[in-house]
Amino acid sequence: MRKLILSAVTAAGLFASSGVALANTGGEPLMKPGFSWEGFFGRYDQAQLKRGFEVFNQVCSNCHGLRLVAYRNLSAVGLTAEEIKEVAAAREIADVPNDEGVISMRAGRPADKYIGPFPNDKAAAAANGGALPPDLSLMAKARVGGPNYIYSLMQGFLDEAPHGVVLPDGKSYNKYFPGNAIGMPPQLFDDLVTYADGTKASPQQMAADISAFLNWAAEPELNERKSLGLKVMIFLAVFTAMLYALKRQIWKNIH
Amino acid sequence: MADSATHAQPSSTDGQSRRDFLLYSTIAVGAVGTAAALWPFVHSMNPAADTLALSTTDVDLAAIQPGQAITVVWQGKPVFVRHRTEEDIALATKDDSAELRDKMADATRVQKPEWLIVVGVCTHLGCVPLGQKAGDPKGDFGGWFCPCHGSHYDTSGRIRKGPAPLNLPVPKYSFTSDTTIRIG
Amino acid sequence: MSGFQTNNKVISWLDERLPIFSMMQHSAIEYPTPRNLNYWWNFGSLAAFVLVVMLLTGIFLVMNYSSHTSLAFDSVERIMRDVNYGWLIRYLHMNGASMFFILVYIHMFRNLYYGSYKAPREVLWWVGIIIYLAMMATGFLGYVLPWGQMSFWGATVITNLFSAFPVVGQSIVTLLWGGFSVDNPTLNRFFSLHYLLPFVIVGLVVVHVWALHTVRSNNPLGVEMKGEADSIPFHPYYTIKDLFGIGLFLMFFLAFVFWAPNFFGEPDNYIPANPMVTPPHIVPEWYYLPFYAILRSFTMDLWIIPAKLQGVVAMFAAILILFFLPWLDTSKVRSAKFRPIYRQFFWLFLVDCLVLGYVGGKPAEEPLVTIGQLGTAYYFAHFLIIMPLLGKLEKPKPLPASISAAVLKEKA
Fold first, then answer.
1. Given CB 3.0 to 4.6 Å as the disulfide criterion, which of A53, B180, C30, C373 pairs with C297?
2. C-alpha to C-alpha distance for B38 and C177, rounded to whole angstroms
3. Alpha carbon of B52: minimum distance to chain A alpha carbons (Å)
4. Are B70 and B8 within one domain?
5. How far is Cα C386 from Cα B86, in angstroms, rounded to an integer?
6. CB-CB under 8 Å, A239 with B33
7. Which range of residues forms the domain containing residue B2?
8. Which of B22, B39, B54, B71 to mutate to test the interface with A (most CBs of A within 10 A)?
9. Are B39 and B57 in the same domain?
10. Residue C220 lies in a domain
11. Could you tell me if A72 lies within 8 Å of chain B, comparing CB atoms?
């Protein structure tokens, strides 16, 4: 029995380490600021999500899309119905053809998905020196390290490439990016945005906030998931204990 | 257990009832758990969030001339928006006193008399009646005519002739301005 | 078919015409089961439970899934975001697949340890391997459906395995694809087969249980049941024990679903499929990794056999060899409890499989390639050399006279 447990632990260990090794990130170990939603009881901090949204809406969204998130979803980061309408109406989208078959543009509506800055990927790549700014809807799930990767990447720019490294034209050096030559120039500097809640917008603060917002964008169900999980686990603990007691009673006369 | 010999009878029934209690309470808890576990599956078949988000439709009325009608999509169903002429309204109010299968006064079916808004689904078996376009047959009462089984609706959308049992339903809507409405 | 009695006229009327109640009575209530089964015998019923969970969640996922390349990825994300409890159903399905394999692997290693594949249970074991093969196919097909990067490139790599076969290889691959690359026709047929195969598995499970009930369960001692004293009725003893096991298992399973739903997944699969860009490091799902390592272990052409073909043949052979296990193992003693030397080799084999799994998940670099090759050699040596020889050479410990005798001795 002891051997079995031992082997199970070994298996789990091998397993976990093999998972970590499949990194699609740059060489440097990621920074881990410790986010509010980590751990068993962790939940999103709505104020942080809202700050993160402000950074996204004012800065990131000039190049990056968020095509899986609808404007109506933003109520979860603390926007009111009026604010959502306003944010949605800031961009235009092709309407359905009218009775004459003419397609005109209309303002975005809350039910629409977040309207991207470019009409299509080709246009986006062309406007950015051939490097397509990826859609950010799932970025927090699509990279090893998720939010830690985003947090690190945003702060991982070096002013100059290390000695001996030749950067292609138009690329910046980032410690955390695979291959280190990233198409995105450094973004965060002091007071890039003015937070509505008065928080001081330091690069570190903004990096944390945008990571939080993008994690929410990728896993909007997290709060609900963890609360439901807690209830389910409490139920199962009680139920399994009852099953165990019943099992003991039924088997009492056998052994 | 030392004196189990002397109290053999009562202690065994005690044990029996304790065991039954545990069995039945476990079954009860398990049944509740199973039912709760099935709920997410059932609920997943209810309208999803994106579907619910489209449960209202905004309509701009400004471009619709008297006598004209447009069809808009609301929750996947056609809604008839008709700019009624004076004659249409007169006809509709006159017929309030006619023999109606589904008795309703015209005034209760409109918020502003010139705008009639009804769900364009025949109350018989769900076809879409004709009468929206200029050349369409409008039936014997100047409203709509359902080609599937020949139901005639009047200028208030009320059933007047044919197999349909009820008037065309009026959806919930409100005027968000003088020339725009929100259905739903 | 004895023993079924009822006073209910409707039930007895039905039972005389279609004896389902008699069958239940016979195979789920009275079924004589060894009294000494340990908790490792819970894993069969657990696997059956997960199969039901997979079917249920799968059927509900299909209600919102679109199997077109331009819609598949977004339809899965719509399930995750907009469908009520869609995230729960999808995470249950995703993690359920991994759970299914964990349970079946434990079930299979239990079988290896206690020699359950030996006469008269060879056919029972065969059906089990066929179930395992069907699971591997189903898992692979299902992994393609979200149409992420790993879906696409996994499908490309695995279907290309068949191109290793001489002459017909490329035609087979084209047939699998329904085109000249993995594309919409491929996704559609994979979806169709992914929906079909689980029901085939259900049928196979019925056959598996049928075979089991014909030859009866093995037990930790590996000696057959001899009399009344050795067995107990399945109900209530094992029904309650299995239910308790399901309770424990659910806590393990749901801990992943609620707190680490992407633990078994690959981040790359949250990037929509892009036929123009291959992710830097492609790995199959974890449950194929040992076989993936075997596939990659063959790096040198041998005579006229290219390395690629060797790898593919070895990978299939690694599974097919299991069919011959009842004859490769020459020992008459079932349980490793009485085979001290085999027991050591059993653990070595388990470690070998874990090492192969580890190597399979890593990039093909030294020293891992060599370790993988040694692991592959040992894998086959275990079946082809160690097991046949050990049966002849090893001197087993004396077996107990009966299950009840051993149980009584242990008690004293």
1. C373
2. 37
3. 9
4. no
5. 99
6. yes
7. 1-46
8. B22
9. no
10. no
11. yes
